[in-house]
Specification:
The protein is mainly beta and 576 residues long. The chain folds into five domains: 132 residues, Carboxypeptidase-like, regulatory domain (Immunoglobulin-like, Sandwich); 93 residues, Carboxypeptidase-like, regulatory domain (Immunoglobulin-like, Sandwich), CATH 2.60.40.1120; 96 residues, Immunoglobulin-like (Sandwich); 110 residues, Carboxypeptidase-like, regulatory domain (Immunoglobulin-like); 106 residues, Sandwich (Immunoglobulin-like). 3% of the residues lie in helices and 46% in strands. It starts with 43 loop residues before the first strand and ends with a strand. The N terminus is likely disordered.
Length: 576
């Protein structure tokens, strides 16, 4: 059976035992011609039509989105009954245009197929650009049936279509669609992108009792993966093409012995209001019920809790709450590992504490004055847990914490989850690039550092440089025409840098004129190559980089240096 290695599962799976999350229906909104009032006004406009790729019929209430890297705000409109739209008041800029509608796959204007960047459109002041038409393919469909050990249908099972994607350079299994089984056990998940999927099903815990032993063993349906296995690593992948329907995804939901997990929650601050305990499966190797699987319970007034119907597996028991009458904005959290093997587990103790803080300042490498306060105010500092603890931090309410930068360049991330954390910097002022993030003299821009309960991490220095590198060039095909329907990948010649979150591995799309640009790569030696038919972020895969290396150009970048590397692309890859 095909084996899949799991690194993480999207936050969408944080409620296995919850009801289904149905796909949102169109709500018959009146078509709107323009987006809401915006700070930047313009005089250019776009008109066009959105139609179904298979029938050519206009699609009403399809959403057309327009964005530009030169503008902070985007624009959008809904199509009318014939699929036509108009977006006016656009500033002069270069735009990316896309269309989407429930049941169809989002597509960019000019793209040959889904998940391609398409053609960028340049609008001059006062220009009226017409016939920007997009034909949307229908989404793929997975249908099947879930049943029990007697062959009877399992009713109201939540069935999810999962797919591997790269998030911040880490390969994660994310939910792309879901459905609920009917009275026949049948389900249908639609509107899916082409790709390879894992299908999973779960139900609300409804324990059954097995007689005949000295103790009565409690059984319940475990989260199950097609074709009927309990470990996500053993799931069979399903390939789904554009507008394809795979009709026979039938599988047995497994009954497994489940357990009660009980214990107590304590806090040095006294009683905790609104506290809860969540068991979060965190097995990156897929040997259990799958990362992101959860079971939960409320904490009683005496601090005790009991979680029922827990399937075998390795979990983090995560508790969260707020101190009664405590300081505003303070969150308490605690975590401890729990291993469930079918028997009840008692005496689990979780100590709550305040999260840590991460404090630092923005500085320039040259010692030049900081940017204007208005520019600093656009910067964001993100704190993110490592992939293995991503869901535990989400259960604690501490996922993806953000801090603003003050006028003096200082920042503080509050309530950081006590676990290894990454810092990510966004919204850099124009003309500056990230030199590094330093803690105790060590650059942690690509590696995690430890955050401990109730303890501050201080002295973080986010260093910016006003001498960024730049690597640019033009991609052409075998006949000398600009190529844009692909990625250009720049990656370090040192394979030790081929890892998630590496700043020395980056990918970009060329513009319609074939021109690509990397700005702010750390100084060093790089390969640069083209990559077609790959997903965004897949360039962190060492196997892909090894293949790209064979035909790549080699470029050396020094501080503040600009280099040009023109690339010629063929279906076989980059041609030197």
């Amino acid at each position: 059976m095909p084996q899949l290695t799991v690194l993480a599962l999207s936050l969408c799976l944080l409620a296995w035992s919850a009801g289904a999350t149905p796909q949102p229906p169109d709500r018959g909104q009146r078509p709107t011609r323009d987006a809401a009032p915006r700070a930047v006004a313009g005089t250019a406009s776009l008109t066009g039509r959105v139609a179904a790729a298979d029938t050519g019929r206009g699609l009403s209430r399809a959403r057309v989105a327009v964005s530009s890297p030169d503008l902070r705000e985007g624009f959008s409109a809904l199509t009318d009954q014939d699929g036509r739209y108009t977006i006016s008041g656009l500033p002069a800029a270069t735009y990316t245009i896309s269309a989407s509608k429930t049941g169809f796959v989002m597509l960019s204007y000019g793209a040959s197929r889904p998940q391609r960047s398409g053609t960028r459109v340049r609008l001059a002041r006062g220009q009226e650009l017409k016939d920007i038409d997009i034909r949307l393919p229908r989404g793929g469909v997975l249908t099947g049936r879930v049943y029990d050990e007697s062959g009877e249908p399992v009713v109201r099972a939540v069935v999810r279509a999962l797919r591997f994607q790269y998030v911040q350079g880490e390969r994660r299994l994310t939910q792309m669609g879901s459905g609920e089984s009917d009275d026949r056990g049948q389900f249908r998940i639609y509107g899916l992108l082409p790709g390879t999927y894992v299908v999973a099903a779960s139900v609300r815990p409804e324990p059954a009792l097995r007689e005949g032993a000295e103790e009565r063993a409690t059984l319940s349906f475990a989260p199950t993966y097609y074709p009927g296995v309990s470990a996500v690593a053993e799931a069979a992948p399903i390939a789904l093409g554009v507008q394809q329907e795979v009709p026979t995804v039938d599988f047995l939901l497994q009954l497994v012995p489940t357990a009660r997990v009980s214990g107590s929650v304590s806090s040095p601050a006294g009683p905790v209001g609104g506290s809860s305990v969540t068991l979060v499966a965190e097995d990156p190797f897929g040997a259990g019920p799958g990362p992101g699987t959860t079971f939960g319970a409320r904490v009683m007034e005496d601090g005790t809790f009991t979680v029922t119907g827990v399937a075998p597996g390795r979990y983090h028991a995560v508790a969260r709450g707020t101190p009664m009458g405590g300081r505003r904005g303070v969150r308490l959290a605690g975590m401890t590992p729990v291993n469930v093997a079918g028997a009840d587990v008692s005496g689990v103790s979780i100590a709550l504490s305040e999260g840590g803080t991460i404090a630092g300042t923005i500085v320039t490498r040259s010692g030049a004055p900081l940017p204007r306060p208005s520019d600093l105010g656009q910067m964001r500092i993100f704190s993110e847990a490592t992939a293995q603890l991503n869901y535990a931090s989400a259960a604690a309410g501490a996922a993806g914490l953000t801090a603003r930068v003050s006028a003096d360049g200082s920042f503080v991330v509050q309530n950081a989850f006590p676990a290894p954390q990454y810092l990510r910097v966004a919204g850099l002022p124009s003309g500056l690039a990230l030199d590094g993030v330093y803690l105790d003299g060590r650059d942690v821009s690509e590696e995690p550092f430890e955050v401990r309960p109730s303890q501050p991490v201080t002295g973080v220095r986010v260093v910016l440089t006003d001498r960024p590198t730049e690597l640019t060039g033009t991609v052409t095909d075998g006949e000398g025409r600009p190529s844009s329907d692909l990625y250009v990948v720049a990656f370090s010649t040192d394979s030790a840098a081929w890892r998630p979150r590496s700043r020395r591995v980056q990918g970009v799309r060329p513009g319609a004129d074939g021109v690509y640009r990397f700005r702010g790569l750390p100084p060093g030696s790089y390969y640069v190559a083209t990559a077609a038919d790959v997903e965004s972020g897949s360039w962190y895969d060492p196997v892909l980089l090894e293949e790209l290396q064979k035909t790549a150009q080699r470029v050396s970048l020094g501080e503040g240096e600009t280099k040009t590397a023109d690339l010629k692309w063929t279906p076989l890859g980059t041609v030197n």
